[in-house]
Design brief:
Length: 459
């Protein structure tokens, strides 16, 4: 039997000729190996990951139907940037963002501009860049300084906005979330906005809690600021999750291009757009909201096509899957799928809220996501990280994590209900939660804190 060695321990033990030998883990081998052996090594290692269907931490799609999987396999070789070579995929991409512009009530969806991206992070970066360029072009034209741009957003923004501010040198002005103000709202925005504000980010579906920020109220506050001080500050809606929920579950909520101040909206096709990971979207209200000088041209059918994106090459298959979902479900299908996720979220939230130790921190009325906390002084013996670790032992990934800044001493636990978490699976999960609580309550004293998974929350 070969001895275990950190750097030489890849060893598929299936005993076929030539397999009983060590392979290097961190250096490229000189020789090749059979595809079956290589497959088995990778397959076996991936098998050790958590089960995606039980991953209630992620917002990202973990189930698509078999025809989607077939289409995926047939189209994995398409590079989205090769618009001239894959004109059908390019046309479908354009159709998809036009559909979104229409869904989000753009005044003239045929005359908007948008793009697919690798996810919401890239889409947010592009939205932020357009805000910055618009602001700096206007300032330059007025002979004013462009030295110190800032962007105003809640302290509960997803990390992509911190990245945007850092990478593109914009001061991030965080409005703290508190017990009284669980999201950004119109009240204290005035203290943060000035002539150097390139825009305000409003989140439709805050990552920590699933709550919607009141976009119309924020737009009205910015209208007042404009009247009082003359600053015309646009909004980017980060609708990573909510922009695929609100049009179906809350069609009367005004948060989108019905508000003139909303210049751009981004979303993740791979979250409630119901497509496997690697797709986001950003759309501008009108062509003029995206400064011309951010657009590049690629050749397309002997002509030129406008593109904007941070990466050049990226998979085209997810764009085709998005279109498949649009055709497959239509408005009615999306409404039914999102509603059934919300039904499951309501059921889970209600039952978890009934358990002695917990109180709900966010409702399930926005996206099918909710968070709860441990009641004050419920017990010294265990906390939500212990509960998370107990559930992990049964394969369920239900993260616990601290809230941001002003609420950082508060820990919450969150469930993201996605298509594929059926009522019956939810019932089984509840049973496990009840069992875990009974076990933790019955302990003599606190569990050791070492080795626990903490703050394991996925955006
Ligand atoms: C509100 C919000 N914005 C942006 C993102 C980043 O999305 P992506 O993972 O698609 O880059 C997330 C991810 O959860 C999110 O919740």
């Amino acid at each position: 039997m070969p001895e275990f060695d950190e750097t030489f321990d890849l060893n598929p033990l299936f005993s076929r000729p030539g397999e009983m030998e060590k392979k290097m883990k961190f250096s490229l081998e000189n020789g090749a190996m059979s595809p079956e052996t290589a497959y088995q090594i990778v397959h076996d290692e991936a098998m050790l990951d958590g089960n995606a269907r039980l991953n209630l931490a992620t917002f990202v799609t973990t189930w698509m139907d078999p025809l989607a999987t077939k289409l995926y396999a047939e189209t994995v070789d398409k590079n989205m940037i090769d618009k001239d070579e894959y004109p059908a995929t390019a046309a479908i991409e354009q159709r998809c963002w036009t559909i979104l512009a229409d869904l989000w009530n753009a005044p003239n969806p045929q005359h908007t501009i948008g793009t697919s991206t690798i996810g919401s992070s890239e889409a947010c970066m592009l939205g932020g860049l357009a805000l910055k360029r618009r602001w700096s072009n206007e300032r330059k034209a007025a002979g004013k300084s462009t030295e110190a741009p800032n962007i105003v957003m809640s302290s509960a923004v997803q990390v992509c906005w911190e990245k945007f501010a850092n990478y593109f040198e914009v001061e991030a002005r965080y409005v703290p979330v508190t017990e009284e103000h669980q999201t950004l709202d119109s009240e204290n925005i005035k203290d943060y906005v000035d002539e150097n504000t390139i825009g305000v980010v409003a989140i439709l579906g805050v990552t920590y809690t699933g709550m919607y920020e009141p976009v119309a109220e924020i737009a009205a506050a910015l209208d007042e600021i404009e009247q009082e001080k003359g600053f015309n500050v646009p909004i980017h809606v980060d609708g990573a999750s909510g922009a695929f929920i609100a049009p179906f579950l809350q069609p009367d909520l005004v948060w989108d291009f019905r508000l003139e101040r909303v210049h751009s909206i981004s979303t993740s096709g791979h979250k409630y757009g119901l497509v496997y990971p690697g797709i986001g979207w950003v759309v501008w209200r009108e062509e003029k909201d995206l400064p011309e000088d951010l657009i590049f041209k690629v050749s397309y059918l002997g002509g030129e096509m406008p593109t904007l994106a941070l990466n050049f090459s990226r998979p085209g298959a997810q764009v085709l899957l998005q279109y498949y979902m649009f055709l497959r479900l239509g408005r009615q299908g999306y409404t039914e799928v999102q509603r059934s996720s919300q039904d499951v979220a309501n059921y889970l939230a209600e039952e978890i809220g009934k358990l002695g130790p917990f109180e709900l921190w966010s409702p399930t009325t926005d996206i099918p996501v909710f968070a709860w906390r441990l009641k004050k002084a419920y017990t010294e013996k265990w906390d939500l990280y212990d509960l998370s670790n107990q559930l992990r032992q049964h394969g369920w990934l239900v993260p616990a994590y601290p809230m941001p800044d002003n609420l950082a001493d508060m820990t919450v636990q969150r469930i993201v209900v996605k298509n594929g978490l059926s009522m019956s699976l939810a019932g089984i999960l509840l049973e496990k939660i009840r069992e875990a609580v009974a076990y933790l309550d019955g302990l003599e004293g606190p569990l050791p804190k070492e080795g626990r998974v903490t703050a394991s929350y996925s955006h």
